[in-house]
Amino acid sequence: MSVSNLRFFFIFALILFFASSCERAKYDVIPDVYVDFYVDLQSDIYFFDFVSAIGNSIYVSAETNNWGPKSAGYDGNGIILFHAQPEEYNAYDRTCPHCYANESLSIAVNIDGIIAVCPQCSTNYFLSSFGQPFSGPSQYPLKNYHTGIFSQYLHVWNK
């Protein structure tokens, strides 16, 4: 590959990267808060039902296992943990992005199976599809947090 082709490739990749990050930011309407905690997937009895089957979900908050504000999500509404696939978990902020973006309200969604439902605007979000709305007025997905499995621990973080 010549130097001019290589330069063109890097410029194109940089433009593509910035374009995709701007698109993602446009739909991430919930402000960032510090999130960083670990869940022991093998020894914590509280999480047994969550870990045992795909499609199970729970929510955690500052009171869960005394984790404090690092597990509280935006405005202390908590974080939903969803068992998506074997060895794959998703984490979402419980704050409804539609209510926040359109009415400046901090409303916590509720879990109903594999769906999160906003009690204010009635938007339904699929937990199995990265928190995408499928009915109701919202055009925004639930805020997603990073997850990773390290040994027997599920790490949830955003920075």
Characterize the structure shown:
With 159 residues, the chain is α+β, with helices and mostly antiparallel strands. 23% of the residues lie in helices and 30% in strands. The chain contains three helices and ten strands; from the N terminus they run αβαβββαββββββ. It has helices spanning 3-27, 48-52, 97-103, and strands at 36-40, 57-60, 79-85, 88-93, 110-112, 115-117, 124-126, 132-135, 144-150, 153-157. The N and C termini lie far apart (36 Å).
Helix/strand-derived category reads alpha+beta
Determine the N-to-C terminus distance. 36 Å
For the largest beta-sheet, the strand count, sense and barrel status come to: 6 strands, antiparallel
Tally of helical segments = 3
Helix content: 10-25%
Percent range for β-strand residues: 25-35%
Order the strands across the largest sheet as they lie in space: 1-10-9-4-3-2
* Low-confidence spans: 12-25
Oligomeric category: single chain
Count of extended strands: 10
| Average pLDDT taken over every residue | 85
Radius of gyration: 18 Å
